[in-house]
Design a protein that fits this description.
The chain contains 12 helices and 13 strands. It is of the alpha/beta class and 421 residues long. Among the domains are: 99-118 and 128-185, no CATH class; 218-417, Rossmann fold (3-Layer(aba) Sandwich), CATH 3.40.50.150. The protein has a 7-stranded mixed β-sheet. Helix 1 packs antiparallel against helix 3 and helix 11 packs parallel to helix 12 (375-386). The radius of gyration is 28 Å and the shape is globular. The two termini are 30 Å apart. It binds 2-acetamido-2-deoxy-beta-D-glucopyranose (NAG) (3 copies). The site of one 2-acetamido-2-deoxy-beta-D-glucopyranose has 2 residues, from loops. InterPro entries: Prob_Methyltransferase, Put_SAM_MeTrfase, SAM-dependent_MTases_sf.
């Protein structure tokens, strides 16, 4: 409704537009008073011939105990209707639906979410009078976990619970509230390699935190298939990973140098979204002086810390979140199967529009070995892509036989964003 969100740094500041929002709240309050009174009037005047007690009141109006019984019934009904109205009001107000009056809500969460007036009063340009820290509206669905997340000793060490935060994010509770505690760290002194030799130096097990993870070492992770795009992907000295983007294994693999030569106006800044890997795309790009931000969560592995240890930029963000970048800032966006958000087709559409938004006109969108579960999915995806009117600089789609002998549909493409007027 009458609220605007502004992205500031890593958080979202929510401002309430006083005029519209409070008038909506006033109307609701007024409505609530009128309905409550009507209800009371109705309850007092309405006589139901089948109700014995109403009859009794009419016939013996002096029976006090009966009257008080009746009054308490009416009060109960008024109370119920008021609660219902309060619920409706909260639903209308969106994220403020987190019911802070609920028992067991952490005091720290209440404090964080309390709106605070602007220090200099009403902002004449925006009409905003107060500011509120934000938290994802879906947090309402996981208030118990959120309360657990916001229960800690202020200024003390944070609980060792990053996986709890990530669990909340994966449930749509994003952004998370800020906390006033000191996050647990591992001691990284003595092991930082200078850039760019850091790009391909193995990352030691002691450099990352393993709490909340099944594996406790990189060799354990390397023995697992973590995702379609991460098999043995922490092994930088051998295997597929150091060949990727510089040597093609199939016609679906494009080489980084070929792609860079297609970026007519130059490529300096890129975003790797849903790459699902350990930052190799960003590493290969870094060698070519292109800065790439890698979006990653720590699903089953310490991706963020691993990428950072290589001297690359990990962005801890789920793909359900609007990208925290302004329009048209990237020259290149690289996406792999991790882009597959599943679920309803609109989900992928929201994501595609956001990718389009942050890509500059003339910039490249590299769809890399995108796995389409079936022909129908391929059709939906290609239809969606074509709707943006990108120029197809490269387009390879077809079946690929996997190790088990099963044929699977893949799409790789280099697409150039058109100039729109
Ligand atoms: C008043 O109503 C109650 C409940 O119906 C009944 O038990 C009681 O006998 C009544 N008293 C008189 C004085 O009518
Ligand atoms: C990387 O893979 C090679 C060959 O598969 C293996 O010898 C080496 O130990 C692996 N390194 C790590 C860190 O897992
Ligand atoms: C990257 O930049 C460095 C320093 O400016 C330069 O020496 C190097 O040749 C550049 N590498 C590429 C691949 O452009």
């Amino acid at each position: 409704m009458g609220s605007v969100s502004l992205k500031i740094g890593d958080g979202t500041a929510r401002f309430r537009r006083a005029t519209f929002c409070s008038s909506a709240a006033n109307i609701l309050m007024l409505l609530s008073v009128i309905i409550t009174n009507l209800f009371a009037l109705y309850a007092f005047t309405y006589t139901n011939p089948t109700t014995h007690s109403t009859d009794a009141v009419r016939h013996s109006p002096n029976n006090i105990s009966l009257v008080s019984e009746h009054v308490s019934l009416i009060l109960k009904q008024i109370d119920a209707s008021q609660k219902k109205l309060a619920r409706m009001e909260k639903e209308l107000l969106g994220y403020e639906s987190i019911d802070l009056s609920r028992p067991n809500i952490a005091a720290e969460l209440k404090l964080y979410l309390q709106p605070h007036p602007l220090p200099l009063g009403k902002d004449s340009r925006s009409g905003i009078t107060e500011m509120a820290s934000s938290v994802g509206h879906s947090c309402e669905k996981s208030v118990d976990l959120l309360t657990q997340f916001t229960t800690y000793k202020v200024s003390g060490p944070c609980p060792d619970d990053w996986s709890l935060g990530q669990k909340l994010i994966l449930r749509g509770c994003e952004p998370l509230p800020r906390r006033r505690c000191l996050a647990k760290m591992v001691n990284k002194i003595n092991v930082l390699h200078p850039f760019p030799s850091s790009l391909w130096k193995p990352v030691g097990d002691k450099m990352v935190q393993w709490s909340g993870l099944g594996c406790k070492s990189f060799s354990c992770l390397n023995s697992k298939q973590l995702s379609r795009d991460c098999v043995n992907c922490f092994n930088l000295t051998n295997g597929n990973e150091n060949q990727r983007y510089v040597r093609a294994r199939s016609k679906y693999d494009f080489l980084i140098d070929d792609v860079l030569s297609m970026g007519s106006a130059g490529i300096r800044l890129g975003f790797d979204v849903g790459g699902g890997g350990s930052g190799n795309f960003a590493a290969r790009m870094a060698e070519r002086n292109v800065t790439v931000v890698t979006a990653t969560l720590n699903v089953d592995a310490p991706f963020s810390e691993f990428i950072a240890a290589r001297g690359l930029f990990p962005l801890y963000l789920s793909l359900d979140h609007r990208f925290p970048f302004y329009d048209g800032v990237f020259d290149l966006i690289h996406a792999a199967s991790g882009l597959d958000v599943g679920g309803r087709p609109e989900k992928l559409e929201f994501l595609m529009f956001d990718i389009d938004r942050v890509l500059r006109a003339g910039g490249l969108f590299w769809l890399d070995n995108f796995y389409c579960a079936d022909e129908e999915k391929k059709k939906a995806l290609t239809g969606l892509i074509e709707q943006f009117g990108y120029k197809k600089l490269k387009w390879v789609v077809g079946d690929r036989v996997d190790k088990a002998g099963k044929s699977q549909v893949y799409l790789s493409a280099i697409l150039q964003k058109p100039v729109r007027v």
